[in-house]
Amino acid sequence: MLYDWRQPVTPRSLALWFLSTAAPAPLRTATLIGRAAIFGIEAAAMRVALGRLVREALAAQPGRGVYALGPAAGALHARARGWMRVEERVRAWDGAWIVVLTHHLGRTDRSRLAVRERALRLAGLAQAAPGMWVRPDNLTVAVGDEARGLGLDADAIVLAGARAAAAQDAAFRDLWPVAALEAGYRYWCAEMAASTARLKGAPAIDAARETYLLGQSVLRAINSDPMLPGELVDVALRGEMVAAMKRYNAMALGWWEKVG
Predict the structure, then answer these.
(1) What is the DSSP letter of 4?
(2) Cis omega before residue 229 (within 30°)?
(3) How far is CA 9 from the centre of its chain?
C-alpha cells in the first residue's frame, strides 16, 4: 500500500519503536520524552501512551522512571527485528500450499476476529473463501506456529503441503495484488534514494525525524509483505528494496546517534 509517509506519527507508535530499538535495555522516561519532542509530541502525551502500553503488557516498568518492552510485544518485536533476514525465510516453491481453516472458530467476537485476521495477513495468507486462508508453502518457518504467535487461535486448523486442482490452483495464485506489491518495491526504493540525497548536510534533528518516518514506512512494507515465490512476484525487485533499506537504516542510525 502506497501512502504519504510524512503523515504525523502517534506517541504510541513512537514509544514502541524507541523501546524496540533499545531492547532488551530499558529507556529512561526523560529519554523517551526528549526523542518524542523531535516529532512535536508533548511530554504529557508520551506519558499517557506509555501508561496505556504498560496496561496492555506491550511495555513494562522494570524500575522507577524506566520503560522496556513488555511480554505481549515479544512476537511482534521478533518479527519486526527480523526484517534484515526476510529473504532467508524463503525457499524454493514446489507448487504446494499452506491452508488454514478458521470456519469453526466463529465470527461473533469482533475483537478476536480482527486479531485473527491480522495474524493471518501478517503471515502472508490471503482469504480464498469464508473460513479458508492460503499461501504458497515456500517459507522455511512453520507458518502455523508463527501465525499463532501473532494472534491466530490455537485451535485453527493448519494444513501444510496441500495440493490444489488446476482451477483452484489458478484461483489461489490470483489472490495477491502482485502489481501493487511490485509498484511498492519501486516506490520505496525511489523514496529512500531521494531522501538520502536530500538529507546530505541537513540538520541532525530534521534528518532523524525524516529517516524515522520513511524508515518505519518501508519496514512496515517489508514486514507485511507476503514473501511470495518467484513464480508469483518479482523477487529480485523485492530484494532490491530490502537491500536499500539496509543502507538507509545504517544512515538513519547515524543521525539518531547525533540527537541522542
Answers:
(1) -
(2) no
(3) 16
pLDDT for res 20 = 85
Provide the greatest CA pair distance for the chain: 61
Mean pLDDT (the chain, rounded): 92
Mean pLDDT of all residues in 226-251:
97
Per-residue pLDDT reduced to its tens digit, 49-100: 999 999 989 999 998 889 998 888 876 677 667 888 889 999 999 999 999 9
pLDDT digits (tens, 9 = 90+) for 92-132: 999 999 999 999 998 889 999 999 999 999 999 999 999 99
**What distance lies between CA 144 and its chain's CA centroid?**
18
Strand partners, 97: 136, 162
> Could you tell me the pTM of the whole model?
0.85
How many Cβ atoms sit within 10 Å of the Cβ of residue 141?
14
CA angle 131–155–140, rounded 5-degree value? 85
Angle CA(129)–CA(132)–CA(136) in degrees, nearest 5? 105
Question: What order of strands is seen across the sheet that includes strand 157-162?
Answer: 126-129, 132-136, 97-101, 157-162
Which one, of 225, 106, 206, 96, lies nearest residue 161 by Cα?
96
Written as nine digits, the cell of 198 is 536530500
